[in-house]
Amino acid sequence: MIDKPAFLPSYVCWHAVQDSDQLAVEVSCHLTKILSRSLLNQSRVSLAVSGGRSPIATFERLSVSQIKWSNIDITLVDERWVDKNHEDSNEGLVRHYLLKNAAEKAKFIGLKNESLTAKDGQVDCHLALQQLVQPFEVVLLGMGLDGHTASLFPDCPELTMAMDSTQSLRCLATTPKSANHERMTLSYNAIMEAKHRVLHLKGTSKLAILEQAMSLGDPMVMPICAFLQHPITLFWSPS
Question: DSSP string of 216-238?
Fold first, then answer.
């Protein structure tokens, strides 16, 4: 049993496990329970997931969960403005690791469209997200070593707009200087309106970054801290 760190507020629900394999089991089970329970009371629900390498094992376990996938809408928390066949595409990753087995029946709407730039595609992407059940039932977040989550990077010029609680767009284009490719990200509001938010982290370095973010308390410096000011479920493993 790994005790909850003292820097985390009481409303952050803490789950720590021994390794990444167990982390994938716990997160996939948690998401399955949320989605299954919600489908008892409504005909469709929606799930937004993060890309990157960390959630791959979770996706693979989730893909075989016996839930009503045909009643589930899936989208991304963020996306690089690249073709889905590009090695950096989150859509490509999700299609390969999640949208298979039982989960193949889910409805998927990506964040990349045919526009030449993310900024040009911003409105069409916002409109496409209207096809999904809103608000999201659950959003699965990750975090980078600079304290970014989704594509809400501290060095992107669009951060203030994306983090604005009065923002009406569900997604916005971002151009972080520290990352490759233009991005499309869910807005702060779209994430915060979700019924459940889950943060998935691996490694002691990530926990140290989380502590630093809480200590600074400035979302413009470390955007993840904005989501730690409200209830969230945190799953962590040291490796």
Answer: H--TTTSTHHHHTTS-EEEEEE-
- The pTM score is 0.97
How far is C-alpha 100 from the geometric centre of its chain's CA atoms? 19
Do 233 and 27 form a contact (C-beta atoms < 8 A)?
no
The tens digit of pLDDT for each residue in 122-132 reads 999 999 999 99
Which of 128, 131, 139, 130 is closest to 194 using CA atoms?
Answer: 139
Report pLDDT digits (tens) over 20-61.
Answer: 999 999 999 999 999 999 999 999 999 999 998 899 999 999
What are the extents of the domains in the chain?
12-143+192-204+225-237
Torsion angles phi and psi, residue 15, rounded to 5: -130, 115
The number of helix segments (H) and strand segments (E) in the chain equals: 8, 10
Whether the pLDDT of residue 1 is over 80: the answer is no
User: What are φ and ψ of residue 13, in 5° steps?
Assistant: -85, 120
Supply the pLDDT for residue 124: 97
Question: Which residues are CB-contacts of 193 (< 8 A; sequence separation ≥ 6)?
Answer: 134, 135, 136
Just give the CATH number of 12-143+192-204+225-237: 3.40.50.1360
Give how far Cα 181 sits from Cα of 150, 175, 187, 234, Å: 14, 7, 18, 28
